Structure formats: structure tokens, C-alpha cells
Amino acid sequence: MSEDGNAVRTPGPEMETVHLLRRVSVEFGLRQGEFAARHGMHPTDVRALICLLDAARSGTPATAGWLGAQLGLNSAGTTALIDRLVRLGHLTRVRDTDDRRRVLLAVDARAVELGQEFFGPWLTGMVELLRTFDAREAAAVRRFLLGAHAALAREDGGAA
Amino acid sequence: MSEDGNAVRTPGPEMETVHLLRRVSVEFGLRQGEFAARHGMHPTDVRALICLLDAARSGTPATAGWLGAQLGLNSAGTTALIDRLVRLGHLTRVRDTDDRRRVLLAVDARAVELGQEFFGPWLTGMVELLRTFDAREAAAVRRFLLGAHAALAREDGGAA
DNA sequence: CACATTACCTCGCTGAGCGAGATAAAATAG
DNA sequence: CTATTTTATCTCGCTCAGCGAGGTAATGTG
Predict the structure, then answer these.
(1) Integer Cα distance of A20 and B58 in angstroms
(2) Which backbone phi and psi does B95 adopt, to 5 degrees?
């Protein structure tokens, strides 16, 4: 049944919602690209900034290798990416004093501003929309997104 | 208060959910990249296939220009992208008989299979998760995603 | 029929990201 | 305490995705 060619053609309300989530992701990628172009960056640079800001938010120490893994880049590409962000003044390399092989990435305040300029309005809109939800509805949204994240986190999607 | 530097540091359950959606989008992008690498394609090629399958699903006629707009590419890049997909046998160029300037993009059955191979497991997991939701919860998820999509569709996010 | 517009393609170039391999610090063995 | 392995990052050379500029059909307009 998983190889049923008609699978994409059986709509159903659930499928509709899933496609909507996918659509949101696509749209999100487009906004990233526009933001990148507007600031003389490449889409990857913006994605890197996003990861770095997330890391800062959650207190995860961001190293070069970690960033590369987040973005699916090899070490050469990661070095080039960091060079670009450093050149633009968004990032500073800081040798880890505990393990001096490691390079910690310190996000500049300017990059944080850029991130908020990018996410701010959208984020605010989303938050305000969520405030119109009652507790059970908000929990449902959270539960769905957690499930989606979990499904995507394992690359086989849960089935071979 | 919108320029409050502490905005990202005031968690709140709503903010958490919004960050989760963002995280899902990032993860989604990573899966695309992995799928692309596994099939000798580039991330953009996969995104193109996604757009083309969406267009096919909704009956939108997919032209070269339309695809370029969807992906934020200029005409030269779009031509190169289509050449790549044609060379891989995922796509066929078909001159529109009504307006012979236009090139319609016919997605090959093989590409549809690839798309389902990619989305299938994940899609199924999501749909099954949604089936555990009651009507109001499912509606809440849909409402949130619609709102997110609407916010992202206007590049200023609804505020300057 | 001229003339503007639209839709796509060709050409040449820049640079993002890859593979291979170097280097340096840390962990482990002997 | 030296030799070896492992880990984390960087350097070098190359390929090819995507851009800008410009060309060529097809369509629409007076």
C-alpha cells in the first residue's frame, strides 16, 4: 500500500494539512533566499545564521564542525562559509581554551539584529495567532510539530 | 517593544511553538539535501521537483518561467536547472500549442516515484499522527499552518 | 506592417561547495 | 614520557550552479 501510485491523489483532510506544512517550509526557504540577496549573502549563510542564533538561544556551544553538520556541508565548505560570515562581520572565531583544536563561533550583535529584523515580524504574527488558541488547540499544534520534527529527524521517515 | 533586544529571550509557550515550526523547516531542508546527494542531484533540483509535483497535483500548468519564479532563479539559471532535470530523465519540455513561446514542463513518472519515495514515509507518519487528533485539534493545526503560510507569503511579515 | 512585450535560451563569468590532503591539539597505548 | 591514533579545522585545486547581458522566436497592438 505504500507503493500505491494513487497515494498523492487521495486528498483527505489530513493529507491537505501535511502538504500545507510542506508548503510553509518551501515559503520559508524563499524568504531566506530573499533576505540573503537583500543583504549580499547566500542562502546558506542565512541558514547558518539561523542555526547559530538557535544555538545561542539554547546555550549550545557552536563550533565549526557542529555548524557544518547542521547544514550538511563538509569541512572545506564550512571553513569557506565561516570565512564569508567573518568577512561580513557577523561572526568571530574564538579558539576554545579547554580544547584548543576547537573553534567556537561567536555571533556578533549585528547578526542578532539581522536575525530579529528577519524573524521579528513573522514571529510576532505567529505568536499573536497562537494567542487566539485555547490550551488544547495550542497543545495540538505543538504536538503536531513535535511529531513532524521527530519524523524528519530520522532520515528514513520511520519506514524503509 | 518590538525592538526590545530581549524579545528572543522571553520564551513563552507560543514562541516555543513558532521556533519549533522553524526548526521543522530547517530539518525539511536537510532531508531535501540528503535526498539530492543520494540521487546525484542538487538541493535546487529537489525543490524544483517538489514544486512541479505540487503544480501537477493542483492542476497548475508548470512553465519554465513559473518554475524559476517559484525557486527565485533568473531565466538563465532556470534553463540550466531544466536542462539538468531533462538530462536526468525527470522532465520533458513540451511547447505549448496555444502560446508557442511557452515551454510546459511534463514531469516524468520516474520523478513522481522519486517524490513519493521521498515524501511517502514521512507523509504517512504525519497523516497517521493527525488521525489521532479530534476535529477541533486538527482544525487548530490547519488554522495555524494557514496563518503561518499567509504571514510568510507577504515578505514584510505584516509589519515594516 | 512596424513596434513593443513576453517567454525562453546562449554565452561568459563568479564563487559555493566538494575531494584530497595538511596541520595541530588531544586522547590513548606502551 | 614518547609513539600512535583520533579529532577538529584549514588549504588547495577543481567542478558546476546561478548571475548578468544579450539574443531569438512568438504574441499582442496601433
Answers:
(1) 13
(2) -65, 130
- Which residue gives the smallest C-alpha to C1' distance to D17? B77
A92 neighbors A49 (Cβ within 8 angstroms): no
The answer to whether the beta carbons of residues A159 and B46 sit under 8 Å apart is no
What is the predicted pLDDT for the residue at A117? 79
Please give the grid coordinates belonging to residue B108.
516524468
- Tell me how far apart the terminal alpha carbons of chain B are, to the nearest angstrom: 14
> Environment class of residue A149 by beta-carbon count within 10 Å: exposed (0-12), middle (13-18) or buried (19+)?
middle
> What sign for the dihedral angle of Cα A81, A85, A86, A87?
positive
CATH topology of domain A13-111: Arc Repressor Mutant, subunit A (1.10.10)
* Res B156: pLDDT: 52
Q: Which residue is nearest to nucleotide C7 (CA to C1')?
A: B101
Q: Does domain B12-114 have CATH number 1.10.10.10?
A: yes
Task: Report the distance from CA of residue A55 to the C1' of nucleotide C18 in Å, as an integer.
Answer: 26
pLDDT tens digit sequence for A42-101? 999 999 999 999 999 889 999 999 999 999 999 999 999 999 999 999 999 999 999 999
* Rounded-to-integer distance, Cα B130 and Cα B120, Å: 15
Domain extent listing, chain B: 12-114
Instruction: Read off the pLDDT of residues B14-61 as tens digits, 9 standing for 90 and up.
Output: 888 999 999 899 888 888 888 898 888 999 999 999 999 999 988 999
